Amino acid sequence: MSLAIVHSRAQVGVDAPSVTVEAHLANGLPSMALVGLPETAVKESKDRVRSAILNAGFDFPPRRITLNLAPADLPKDGGRFDLAIALGVLAASGQVPAAGLEQLECLGELALSGAVRPVQGVLPAALAARAAGRTLVVPRANAEEASLASGLSVLAVEHLLQIAAHLSGQTPLLPYQASGLLREVQPYPDLAEVQGQLAAKRALLIAASGGHNLLFTGPPGTGKTLLASRLPGLLPALDEQEALEVAAIQSVASHAPLERWPQRPFRQPHHSASGPALVGGGSRPQPGEITLAHQGVLFLDELPEFDRKVLEVLREPLESGFIVIARARDKVRFPARFQLVAAMNPCPCGYLGDPAGRCRCTPEQIQRYRSKLSGPLLDRIDLHLTVARESTALGAPTTPGQSSASAAAEVAAARQRQMARQGCANAFLDLPGLRQHCVLQVQDQHWLEQACERLNLSLRAAHRLLKVARTLADLEQAADIARSHLAEALQYRPSQGG
């Protein structure tokens, strides 16, 4: 047989579109042509495949070989197609049977010796192969990751000879059995370890219950970072679909093993991060920090120290839950449904309002510092809280605070009420949902309108205030929003321009 077809998968963002590797042998001068919009790393696979076939003990056919990666208009990059190309050449030349290739999808980079090396982005390919009903052949180093797609048959190979022997029926490969190492849960830091800060802990509980964004403002050393790191431990556990989304993003972003796979991510980029580092980008678009924080928490410490242009790009994903990276040749959409937690000092030196009078900042310096944050960005943060200094008496007795487990139980109960009522967290309610589930009494409606007028709140801020009030009602298991819920929600919303 002079024509063989092998199935594989490309990587485009967090998707894995199907690629068909067609190998055709014809008479003529010995040559190998690779077509189908391959990039440099794919073009170089011709030399890797040739050496791998020879070093594995097979004959490299001295004929005119044409390799087509279809569809032709889809860019292909990386060494992930090496194994499929080698099997196509071997099947087309009759050295391995082609009958079993139809039900296989192959991924893997070949060493010159024929060894199969790991590749990036295996999990999205595994999910796509499961949907297609095929068995996935991957390097052994990627097998544990691929096995996260439950119900998928995975064949783990270390050398080209192993898959060739499997296709020939000499030594059939058994489906890979997952070890479960990627499913080990690591505990998050406990909320009870934070001394004092009852108001800040209350704000964390509200933020976790409704999926709200949160901004801590306070002098250095008051525990803003400590508090933010406790938020992931309060959030409800991911379901399988959400966990696979998070793992797929990690899979395409790095060769490193998946971290905290069943748990929500916590990302903390440095304030020197560039726009592409935060939102993603590059000539070959890669996910940024906001996508790596998908279904988890993005913590921005020293918020005004970030470049203003970098912060402004957060506005769209905070509303939509995704980011679109557009390039000349293609457009890639990355998920970015994250919960923003930010922290900042009240002034450049950090000690504005300190009882000891340590602040020496002028009003102009303070205004310039705070003006680094735009109104539209601050408008999208639901909860604003000032974190005050606590007692520094190390030997003073302290009453143990609420633990993360206890707070997480309250959060889970509130989230269950929200999912049963509207199918999403309160922070993600759209306008029709807001009108349906955040109904106020007539007198409370007038009271809220007057309060918003006095505080110069925008319509967006008023809507977010209503969502916070709805969350407060859910925490108290109340069917309707009361005046007390509105009053507490107003405490977390600063005046705008007035």
How do the strands and helices of this protein lay out in sequence?
Elements: E1 3-9, E2 18-26, E3 31-35, H1 40-43, H2 45-55, E4 64-70, H3 82-92, E5 104-106, E6 109-110, E7 116-117, H4 122-132, E8 135-139, H5 140-146, E9 154-157, H6 160-168, H7 198-210, E10 214-217, H8 224-228, H9 240-253, E11 266-267, H10 275-279, E12 280-281, E13 286-287, H11 289-292, E14 297-300, H12 308-312, H13 315-320, E15 322-326, E16 331-335, E17 339-344, H14 363-370, H15 375-379, E18 383-386, H16 404-422, H17 431-437, H18 442-454, H19 459-475, H20 483-491
Parallel strand pairs: 3-4, 5-8, 8-9, 10-17, 10-18, 11-14, 14-17
Antiparallel strand pairs: 1-2, 2-4, 6-7, 12-13, 15-16
Helix pairs in contact: 2-3, 7-16, 7-19, 19-20
